[in-house]
Amino acid sequence: TFRLQLNALTRWLIALSCSMAVGGHFVGPWILGFLYGDTYTQGTASAVPVFQWLSIGLGFALVTPVLAVACLAQGQDALLMRISLIGLSLNIAANLWWVPQLGPQAAALSWCLSEAWVMTALLIAAIHQGHLHIRPRDGLYLLPSIIMLIVLPQLTPWPTMQFLVGCLIGLSGLIVLHQQPAQRAVRQAVAATAQTDPAKRTSSTSP
What we know:
Number of strands: 0
Radius of gyration: 21 Å
Oligomer: single chain
Structural class: mainly alpha
Shape: flat
């Protein structure tokens, strides 16, 4: 059940993360404009690049907790600590190097870089230890983000439509992926475990 849950949840979160990264890149200007007007979408005060980097970084950050919990569950505390410390060091070094050149954008870029390192390192560790398996058909989980990457640039002249179509593609894609055999299998396994556990507790406490 542990491996089923890890594989299914990691795949689904990667699909979500990629959709958020692509969507954030294209609809970021519209979101900032909708919330704050033109103040933070144009000129030197533009926060669009920062928003785009944060969208990518958030994608990495969504997947990391699942892989970190899996690492802890397997008693790999030291490995997790080393990866985290390297990520922290990378973040600090990147900030020191880029802030004088890029200003506020440097913080977002540095955070994105450190999150990418932590997620990638944990992902490779899980694959190497045999807990996570990547198969060619798993490319299906990237389909929503690929469709967004093709469609959203065509809607740039119509930002509101671009935002709505991006949400539609992302949400419908995730719903479809949630019905994939691997996702259904883990839900069935969890349900079966939930049904058998009470019986085990009753038998173990009965005289």
